[in-house]
Write a structure and sequence with these properties.
By secondary structure, the chain is α+β, with helices and mostly antiparallel strands. It is 47% helix and 22% strand. It is elongated, with a radius of gyration of 52 Å.
Length: 676
């Protein structure tokens, strides 16, 4: 925003000093106090909102973590069950094809079941059960009886195709438990057979170690509420296996909510509030559970809550202290602003303050220089609002101004010339702009100092005009000398040639001697005439006026090759419109002088002349592969200086640079008016 003028300093001093200030604070103090109270209130409200939001996010994050652990447990358990039960079903199908389970011999039953025991060690036994027949086989032994064991509580009329029993002792490993799980086979006649296995879930201990920093407990619960597996174990024993939680309120709510989800409640085994994630397995009446104590899940949130409350209390204290100090600082800042405004407005140059690409402030000198109504009138304007649409080099003012501002902000400063326009009359005037960046906290401003250089430009223009006039007179003199050489000396030598030819008839010499002598004189006269004519062309080639720049450049290159034996590579357009005579002469003279320098100084095997015509400009380049020059050193003599002065006279751009191959490239560009 534009800087505003400070108020009356003495009145401010009286209002902010004295003992009554503590009892009757001015209006600004009340505003600051109200601001502090509002800020503190908003701060506490925000912290309370963030604490509550963090609480909900923490719980949701914990739920998602438990879901992830449950998904891992679900996948591992399903793979185990499909491995064991699937093997038993495959063996049963094989026996069914051979006549049925009832008709199979004990040896056949044992061989078939043991052959299917190819999975992991978690499949301890496979069994088959049919009316009046039960077979159980492990990797070491097998049993075949007409009566099912007590733990096999499958009812043939029971709904569903899967069954899970209570955990039982491992027949081969005392102290270990296994869980019987089976699936119903498709009916065959009056047969209702089941195939399953006894599963050891000791591998859950390994899974628990992987997730113990994320969960409190994990396990399997049958749909009737029987705990099948629970980790961690107590003294390497699953003391909770076989217990029922069917009457537990948390379990009943979970069953009522659906097949999967997350529920919170009192854990009868953990004896504390627990967050459970549960999921019913496909094709098996088993729930996968993963739980974490609610206190452990919210422990990080409690730490963050304490930190937030402490920080908010510190913020409240800081606000109260800052409110007491702000009044003093405001008075000090107003005095400094008054001093700055005084210096800013009394400067003898225009000064603008920019934020981005827009003015936010201007001094009084800028108001007078640019014809503005007031300092505030500059606020919101852009540099191209006070500039013509195009700068003298043809670039758009808005695009070039943005580039200059970006350069100053990036490099810290930039100095350049600019064509400005008065806001009241529209009159144009040149100026030199010093653009520098100012950092004010997070905001980066640009300070533009503008110096009107109209007087200096006029002096430079007069100097260029004088230099151009001298060059014009020099060219006129060359034209005159060229005409004289051609019309007088050349004709005289031609007459001499004719006279000497007539002497061939002199009788005092033999015919052969006279002929040789006179032929020699004729050749000398012819050669002299040719050289004089060439010198005339070099002073001012007639081709330039008659056929244009392209023909003159080709003639120049051909003559240069004949005189110096240096190859000239031409890259010229097939045709082009005629340029103004001064422009064509300027470009020709630059090419002529550049080739002369190549011949004298470059020691280059070749030279190149390139002419590129664009819609609004013509660019001429002369390049060589010689020794090159040091462009950082000032050039002595009239060669480069003359070329530079010629191109400046017609408003073009001239540059000399070193090529990558070590040679020199002379480049000049002139603007041409657009074709109608």
């Amino acid at each position: 925003m534009p800087l505003k003028k400070s108020g009356d300093a003495p009145s401010q001093r009286r209002a902010t000093t004295g003992p009554l200030r503590l009892i009757f604070p001015p209006a600004l103090n009340w505003v600051l106090l109200a601001y502090a109270l509002i800020a503190v209130t908003i701060g506490w409200a925000y912290v309370a909102s963030r604490i509550h939001s963090d609480y909900l996010q923490t719980l949701e994050s914990e739920r998602n973590r438990l879901r992830g652990v449950g998904a891992t447990l679900w996948s591992a358990t399903l793979a185990m069950l499909n491995d064991g039960v699937g093997a038993a079903v495959a063996g049963a199908n094989e026996l069914q094809l051979a006549g049925g389970i009832k008709a199979a011999s004990s040896a056949n039953l044992t061989t078939t079941l043991q052959k299917q025991l190819t999975g992991g060690d978690y499949v301890r036994f496979l069994f088959l059960a049919d009316k009046g027949r039960f077979a159980l086989a492990s990797r070491q032994r097998s049993t075949d009886s007409a009566q099912a064991p007590e733990w096999l509580t499958i009812d043939s009329a029971a709904p569903g195709n899967s069954w899970v029993g209570r955990p039982i002792a491992d027949p081969e490993r005392p102290g270990k438990l296994v869980v019987p799980i089976a699936q119903r086979l498709p009916p065959l006649g009056d047969s209702t057979a089941w195939a399953g296995g006894l599963f050891s879930f000791d591998g859950f201990d390994f899974l628990y170690e992987q997730f113990r920093d994320q969960i409190l407990t994990m396990g399997l619960i049958a749909t009737d509420g029987t705990i099948l597996v629970r980790v961690p174990k107590v003294a390497h024993r699953d003391v909770a296996a076989g217990e029922s939680v069917a009457s537990d309120a948390t379990f009943r709510r979970a069953v009522a909510d659906g097949k999967s989800g997350v529920i919170e409640g009192y854990g009868p085994t953990a004896k504390k509030e627990v967050i459970y994630a549960y999921d019913l397995m496909n094709d098996y009446p088993i729930y996968i559970i993963a739980g974490q104590a609610r206190d452990a899940a919210l422990a990080p949130w409690r730490e963050r809550r304490q930190m937030s409350l402490s920080a908010t209390a510190g913020f409240t204290a800081l606000m109260l202290i800052m409110t007491a100090l702000l009044n003093h600082y405001i008075y000090t800042l107003r005095r400094r602003e008054h001093h700055y405004r005084t210096l800013f407005n009394n400067a003898h140059f225009s000064a603008f303050l920019l934020e981005g690409a827009r003015f936010v402030d201007a001094n009084r000198t800028a108001v007078r220089m640019f014809g503005l109504q007031s300092e505030q009138a500059a606020a919101g304007m852009t540099p191209w609002d006070l500039s013509p649409e195009h700068q003298p080099d043809g670039q758009r003012s808005d695009e070039l101004a943005r580039a200059r501002i970006e350069t100053a902000l990036r490099d810290g400063g930039s100095t350049f010339e600019w064509m400005h326009k008065r806001a009241d009359t529209g009159a144009l005037f040149p100026a030199e702009v010093d653009l520098s960046s100012l950092s004010t906290g997070r905001t980066v401003l640009a300070l533009a100092v503008v110096h009107d250089v109209t007087v200096r430009k006029r002096a430079e223009q007069d100097l260029r005009a004088l230099s151009a006039e001298l060059m014009r007179l020099q060219d006129e003199e060359r034209r005159r000398i060229g005409r004289d050489l051609h019309d007088s000396t050349g004709q005289t030598l031609a007459a001499l040639e004719l006279g000497l030819s007539q002497l061939m008839q002199d009788s005092r010499l033999t015919a052969e001697a006279r002929r040789e002598l006179l032929e020699h004189c004729a050749r000398l006269a012819t050669q002299c005439s040719t050289e004089i004519r060439t010198a005339s062309y070099l002073l001012h080639p007639p081709l330039l006026d008659e056929l244009g720049l392209l023909s003159a450049l080709r003639w120049l290159a051909d003559g240069f090759y004949k005189r110096s034996a240096i190859q000239v590579r031409l890259d010229l357009p097939a045709s082009m419109n005629r340029l103004p005579p001064d422009d064509e002469l300027c470009l020709f003279r630059i090419a002529q002088e550049a080739l002369t320098n190549i011949h004298r100084h470059a020691a280059s095997p070749w030279a190149a002349i390139r002419l590129k015509v664009q819609s609004n400009s013509v660019m001429l380049e002369i390049e060589d592969a010689g020794r090159g020059i040091d462009v950082s050193e000032p050039q002595i003599g009239v060669g480069l200086a003359g070329m530079r002065e010629r191109i400046r006279h017609i408003g073009g751009i001239f540059s000399v640079e070193k090529t990558s191959a070590g040679g020199t490239r002379v480049r000049t560009t002139i603007l041409i008016p657009p074709r109608p």
